């Protein structure tokens, strides 16, 4: 990828973060921390990786995306709005009665959402079913899923992991957002999923470990995943919860809390400044 | 009407899947290491490339089926009722029911008639659980003909289905040209004193009970409710009006099952006495299926007794 293209991705990711803050602030509830930690990966997926068309969101041959960590819906919605699946104004309706943007993703209500999720551990299994369906139908599309690191505590993740490698689903790419924090503390304190890469390796997956905020590493990982045959790939992406908003970074208290007006203003000011800097770079 | 053919509804399910698989290449089957028992093994043998064994992992199995449905397949996901409706309830609720996906759950070994395996495998709660999921169609066939028809109807109708099959061989009650319609109860006998509304293997017991009652001068109407959701309100309301007393009969918990569904309709429209025959807030136990059905009161004799009690409650 050209440097100019990477610059554009960084700009888009910054705008995605602004959308997340806007949405969660408007809703006065939601999950900003884990949304901000996946903003770069989500931006890359929708602007440089997946074959999707906002004008034809149900195209049978599109790549599929499942947000297995469904509570970080604001990141998905913000990127879908940037991509043009619906107007950005909709972000302000998040979690409100009648909104197309439910607290957790609903495939029946939001254009561009491929699967309803929210109950942890389930999305990855659905992604496995989609990838299996693609193989069976001999379709070339790929399936992507983003999971949380805390989510790995759900036993169903490992049921899915075992099945995906047993069926050789190399058209499936999972990403673990390894921000190290969950509601009750650090993932290691609560019930350690570490070592994450080793576990997936033992389950028969191709494992790639990256920094979740480096577009160079993100690009290299997704390219390598596409080339790898015979096994599904998991990208274990070391991330910072709350990335991009100084006072939210690496703070578990921002897992599921909305900013007040002052905090909203500060967050938006920081992101505006970051955007200006990116545009001028 | 009845002849000598006896077949378990799970057997009819397996056969119907094979027949359906030949007609529709979109039909796929997932199972959880029970293909020999659920009878999906027949489909596996006929179409190995369209059969996927999830192993002993029912939650993943249900969601893999959900994923397959989103790419245009018609997945039948099978396990014992206990595991697919019980263990995987939340998967069915959140990832099949909520997005209203075209997944067909083929649950076998429902109810007490599982027999010797005992309480851990005798699911009597599944109807109640599935009834609470918006948009779920629940079909509990009474014989092999109805089971086959239910499989075909489910495949032809968009949306989630819960198909409930049993382990025990049952006498065939329906003719081969039987016309099955989702959501339509079937009146099997007319009567004026009481209505027996039955489902699944209790339909045969209801017919026996009707004859026993007739010998005592009591005229019973018999209705087969194969579709527990959406329930046929019209046929129930008509029965309440015309006979003034109802007995329900099911091989499932009386809490939340057919008995509850009928009671809800009757109480809100034509309040008449309803007495429920079913598993009475108890776990099952080990023993030969037919013996267990007797122990738990799932018999024509118990229906007769409850029919008389319901008539006695009439005002």
Topology readout:
The complex is a heterodimer of chains A (281) and B (315).
Chain A: H1 3-27, H2 32-37, H3 39-49, E1 64-67, H4 73-83, H5 123-137, E2 143-148, H6 155-166, E3 172-178, E4 181-182, E5 185-186, H7 187-191, H8 196-202, E6 206-211, H9 215-227, E7 233-238, H10 261-280
Helix pairs in contact in A: 1-3, 1-4, 1-10, 3-4, 3-9, 5-6
Chain B: E1 6-8, H1 9-23, E2 27-31, H2 35-38, H3 41-46, E3 51-53, H4 58-70, E4 74-80, H5 81-87, H6 89-97, E5 104-108, H7 126-131, E6 137-139, H8 144-156, E7 161-164, E8 169-171, E9 186-189, E10 194-198, H9 202-215, E11 220-224, E12 227-229, H10 233-243, E13 246-253, H11 258-269, E14 274-279, H12 289-295, H13 300-312
Parallel strand pairs in B: 2-3, 2-4, 4-5, 5-7, 6-7, 10-11, 10-13, 13-14
Antiparallel strand pairs in B: 1-8, 6-12, 9-11
Briefly characterize the structure.
The complex is a heterodimer of chains A (281) and B (315). Chain A is of the alpha/beta class and 281 residues long. Chain A is built from ten helices and seven strands.
Tell me what you see in this structure:
The complex is a heterodimer of chains A (281) and B (315). Chain A has 281 residues and is of the alpha/beta class. Chain A has a single domain, classed as Rossmann fold (3-Layer(aba) Sandwich). Chain A has 10 helices and 7 strands. In chain A, the strands form 2 sheets. Chain A has a 5-stranded parallel sheet with strand order 1-2-3-7-6, with helices on both faces. A two-stranded antiparallel ribbon of chain A has the order 4-5. In chain A, strand 2, helix 6 and strand 3 form a beta-alpha-beta unit. The two termini of chain A are 17 Å apart. Chain B is an alpha/beta fold. Chain B has 2 domains: 166 residues, Thiamin diphosphate (ThDP)-binding fold, Pyr/PP domains (Rossmann fold), CATH 3.40.50; 125 residues, Rossmann fold. Chain B is built from 13 helices and 14 strands. In chain B, the strands form 3 sheets. A 7-stranded mixed sheet of chain B has the order 3-2-4-5-7-6-12, sandwiched between helices. In chain B, helix 8 links the parallel strand 6 and strand 7. In chain B, helix 4 packs parallel to helix 6 and helix 10 packs across helix 11. Chain B starts with 5 loop residues before the first strand and ends with a helix.
């Amino acid at each position: 990828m050209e440097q100019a293209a990477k610059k554009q991705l960084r700009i888009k990711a910054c705008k995605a973060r602004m959308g997340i803050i806007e949405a969660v602030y408007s809703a006065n509830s939601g999950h900003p921390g884990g949304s901000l930690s996946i903003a770069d990966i989500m931006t890359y997926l929708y602007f440089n990786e997946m074959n999707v068309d906002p004008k034809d969101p149900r195209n049978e041959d599109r790549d599929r995306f499942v947000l297995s960590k469904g509570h970080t819906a604001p990141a998905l919605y913000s990127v879908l709005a940037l991509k043009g699946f619906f107007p950005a104004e909709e972000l302000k309706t998040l979690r409100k009665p009648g909104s197309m943007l439910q607290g957790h993703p609903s495939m029946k209500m939001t254009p561009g959402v491929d699967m309803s999720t929210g109950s942890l551990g389930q999305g990855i299994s659905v992604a496995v079913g989609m990838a299996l369906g693609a193989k069976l139908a001999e379709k070339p599309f790929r399936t992507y899923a983003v999971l949380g690191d805390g989510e790995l505590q759900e036993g169903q993740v490992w049921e899915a992991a075992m099945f995906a490698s047993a069926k050789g689903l190399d058209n499936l790419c999972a990403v673990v957002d390894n921000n190290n924090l969950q509601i009750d503390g650090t993932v290691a304190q609560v019930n350690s999923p570490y070592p994450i890469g080793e576990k997936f390796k033992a389950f028969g997956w191709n494992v790639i470990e990256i920094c979740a905020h480096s577009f160079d590493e993100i690009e290299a990982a997704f390219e390598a995943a596409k080339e790898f045959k015979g096994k599904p790939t998991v990208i274990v992406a070391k991330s910072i919860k709350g990335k991009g908003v100084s006072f939210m970074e690496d703070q578990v208290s921002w897992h599921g809390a909305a900013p007040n007006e002052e905090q909203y203003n500060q967050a938006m000011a920081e992101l505006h400044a970051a955007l200006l800097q990116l545009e001028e770079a | 009407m009845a002849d000598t053919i006896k077949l378990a509804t799970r057997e009819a399910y397996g056969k119907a899947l094979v027949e359906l698989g030949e007609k529709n290449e979109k039909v796929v089957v997932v199972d959880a290491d029970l293909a020999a028992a659920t009878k999906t093994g027949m489909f596996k043998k006929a179409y190995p490339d369209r059969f996927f064994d999830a192993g002993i992992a029912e939650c993943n199995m249900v969601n893999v089926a959900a994923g397959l449905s989103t790419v245009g397949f018609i997945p039948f996901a099978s396990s014992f009722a206990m595991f697919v409706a019980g263990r995987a309830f939340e998967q069915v609720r959140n990832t099949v029911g909520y997005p209203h996906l075209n997944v067909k759950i083929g649950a076998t070994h429902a109810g007490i008639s599982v027999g010797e395996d005992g309480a851990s495998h005798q699911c009597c709660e599944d109807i109640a659980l599935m009834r609470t999921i918006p948009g779920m169609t629940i079909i509990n066939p009474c014989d092999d003909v109805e089971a086959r028809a239910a499989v075909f109807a489910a495949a032809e109708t968009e949306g989630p289905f819960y198909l409930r099959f049993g382990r025990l061989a049952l006498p065939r009650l329906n003719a081969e040209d039987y016309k099955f319609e989702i959501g339509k109860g079937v009146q099997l006998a007319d009567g004026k004193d009481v209505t027996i509304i039955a489902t699944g293997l209790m339909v045969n017991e209801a017919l026996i009970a009707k004859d026993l009652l007739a010998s005592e001068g009591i005229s019973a109407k018999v209705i087969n409710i194969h579709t527990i959701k959406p329930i046929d309100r019209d046929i129930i309301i008509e029965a309440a009006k015309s006979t003034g007393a109802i007995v329900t009969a099911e091989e499932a918990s009386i809490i939340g099952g057919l008995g509850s569904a009928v009671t809800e309709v009757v109480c809100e429209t034509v309040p008449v006495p309803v007495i429920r025959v079913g598993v009475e807030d108890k776990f099952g136990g080990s023993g030969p299926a037919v013996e267990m059905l007797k122990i738990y009161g799932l018999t024509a004799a118990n229906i007769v007794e409850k029919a008389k009690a319901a008539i006695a409650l009439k005002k």
